[in-house]
Amino acid sequence: MNKVTNSFMRGIGRWRWLAVTGMALALAACSGTDKPSLDAGGNGAGVNAGGQATPGSERDFIVNVGDRVHFLVDQWSLTPEAQDILRRQAAWLNRYPRVTVRIEGHADERGTREYNLALSARRAEAVKRFLISQGVAANRISTIAYGKERPVALCDEERCWAQNRRAVTVITGGARR
Amino acid sequence: MPKKELFTGWMMVVLAAWMLLLATPARAVLQVQINRGQVQPVPVAVPDFLGRTQDERVLGQKVAEIIRNNLARSGLFRIIDPAAYIERINSFDAPPQFGSWRVIKAQALIVGRVAAHPDGRVEGAFRLWDVFTQRQILGLKFITSKREWRRVGHKISDAVYKAVTGDEGYFDTRIVFIDESGPKKKRVKRLAIMDQDGFNLHYLTDGRALVLTPRFSPAAQRIAYLSYATGVPRVYILDLATGQRRMIGEFPRMSFAPRFSPDGRRLVFSLLENGGSNLYEMDLATRRIRQLTNTRAIDTAPSYSPDGRFIVFESDREGSQQLYVMPAPGGPAKRISFGRGRYSTPVWSPRGDMIAFTRMRRGRFAIGVMRPDGSGERILTEGYHNEGPTWAPNGRVIMFFRTRRGPNGGPHLYSVDLTGYNERLVPTPNFASDPAWSPLLK
């Protein structure tokens, strides 16, 4: 067995720990949709009597904080705008420490399948690292890469592709109703 | 009925060549030159196959239709319309009246007969005649189960293709691909398999979990693919005979882009790590894993050379996606793509002489081929979005998917010859992507 394999085995040890965390998160998971639930406002969830989002609710997070950041073509670095949004996300998550999230990474459809999976993973990881740097515990954050499989805008032009190059912070548990 | 039968039970009998009394020229003229770009297709007549009963005759019509369709789609044959045939073939054993076939400018004539055995098996026999030399070039008989009767047509097509072109055929093969239904924002993707001509479509997953990038094992009995069935997207292997699925390693991070080794014993794939992805190889018997690349780049889309000694893959280690070749056990990788644009999804030809790829340049996606040393780059098709080439087992034809613009647009499968000619839509009931061509079935 060569050196490469040994380092791989060490890697496995670290991953196993992460796997346990991931499982706990999966158990806590509720909604897995990647869309702002603005359209769900009518059903009353997360909305108080005055029509305002209940502080600490998923709706509060989406409306008042912003659940997604966007990326430049073939890039995974966080733009200043993205960092602003993520700082707000981190502050909100630090205020509601029971909330767990999954970062869903996406790419536009102007790339090839496998590469886009890895590129969207990089984007999700970049968001996760940033949130951790802002004090959010790593074990509250999971990531998943969707590549170009889940577009939100369909016009086949740059203005839509720009919306599809995104990482969305989806609440998986612990939010107020 | 166990699916294992798919791969067994074939009988092939060589029929005695017809001894001709007529004088024959010294050299058979029935051949097609396929190394040059545009070919002159061989005009061939395929009358409906004979049968003793009405049922057999109906089957005989269908088998002849399969053969006509296969040969026509190859682009190397031109099927003469049966309505133009002068002689009505009514004996499988008597030589045809060559003059009447010469009149309608047929160079080749395929005469066949089907028989339904009392035990349910189907037998198809044929003779391939060279109309000009008046010689039987080939005579074969195939027997199979009733359920697989279409394969008789495919086997005969393969035999004729080989006799005329000198290359192995690719008609008795299957395609595994991703069937796509539903709106673009909520695509349902299912693993599907069908015969190379679009018939016998079966779904292998139910659409609840996202599935991508299926790949055949070299014996066409297993399919490796990516599934989002659990929280972590992972590579699975599906055994077609047993229907069993097994996950390849419980990596907490995504494993993807699987490809079997040519001997079917190993699987190479990508694993997310270090902010990118590295290539790993698993010994499928021992499940032991070894790391093949170690970078912070995205190394993905690996594909073995047919001798198993090398792996071609794509990497953005120098900034943008490019193609690299390295020894299969890992080691120094040599970049082979140097044209303008990004190069992706390399696939080594089963003949070993070419690597097919997707090239992205100025917003256009092309399918091309180059030699394994990177020389001789040639684009076969280019447009808004062409992606994901896969080779026919004879290394002469490439299938890929093409997506059209539009909010309701979606991908379809296409095939194109290595020459760039003879582009054809591959019929599928819904949108279809990520095709993988099986080896020739046994």
Explain what you see:
- The complex is a heterodimer of chains A (177) and B (442).
- In chain A, 44% of the residues lie in helices and 12% in strands.
- The relative contact order of chain A is 0.19.
- Chain A has one domain (3-173): 60s Ribosomal Protein L30, Chain: A (2-Layer Sandwich).
- The longest helix of chain A is centred in the first third of the chain and has 26 residues, at 3-28.
- In chain A, helix 3 (80-95) packs across helix 4.
- The termini of chain A are far apart.
- With 177 residues, chain A is of the alpha+beta class.
- Chain A is globular, with a radius of gyration of 17 Å.
- With 442 residues, chain B is mainly beta.
- Chain B has two domains: 3-19 and 31-165, TolB, N-terminal domain (Rossmann fold, 3-Layer(aba) Sandwich); 174-437, Neuraminidase (6 Propeller), CATH 2.120.10.
- Chain B has helices at residues 54-74, 98-103, 150-165, and strands at 11-14, 42-45, 77-79, 108-116, 122-130, 135-144, 174-181, 188-195, 202-203, 211-216, 222-227, 234-239, 245-247, 255-260, 266-273, 276-283, 289-291, 299-304, 310-315, 322-327, 334-335, 342-348, 355-361, 364-370, 378-383, 386-391, 397-403, 411-417, 424-426, 431-437.
- In chain B, the strands form seven sheets. A six-stranded mixed β-sheet of chain B has the order 1-6-5-4-2-3.
- The model of chain B is unreliable at 1-9 and 16-28 (pLDDT under 50).
How would you describe this structure in keywords?
heterodimer; A: 177 residues; alpha+beta; 60s Ribosomal Protein L30, Chain: A; four-stranded mixed sheet; 5 helices; 4 strands; globular; disordered N terminus; B: 442 residues; Rossmann fold; Neuraminidase; six-stranded mixed sheet; four-stranded antiparallel sheet
CATH superfamily of chain A: OmpA-like domain
Detail the poorly predicted runs of chain B.
1-9, 16-28
Tally of DSSP helical segments of chain A: 5
**CATH class (first level) name of the largest domain in chain B:** Mainly Beta
Helix content of chain A: 40-55%
How many β-strand runs of chain A? Answer: 4
**Number of individual domains of chain A:** 1
Strand order of the largest sheet of chain B: 1-6-5-4-2-3
Count of individual domains of chain B: 2
For the record, the CATH architecture of the largest domain in chain B stands as 6 Propeller
Order of helices and strands of chain A: HHEHEHEHE
Mind summarizing the main beta sheet of chain A?
4 strands, mixed
* Distance between the ends of chain B: 19 Å
Q: Give the terminus-to-terminus CA distance of chain A.
A: 53 Å
- Main beta sheet of chain B: strand number and arrangement? 6 strands, mixed
- The strand count of chain B comes to 30
Please state the average pLDDT score of chain A. Answer: 81
**Radius of gyration of chain B over all CA atoms, rounded:** 23 Å
Shape of chain B: globular
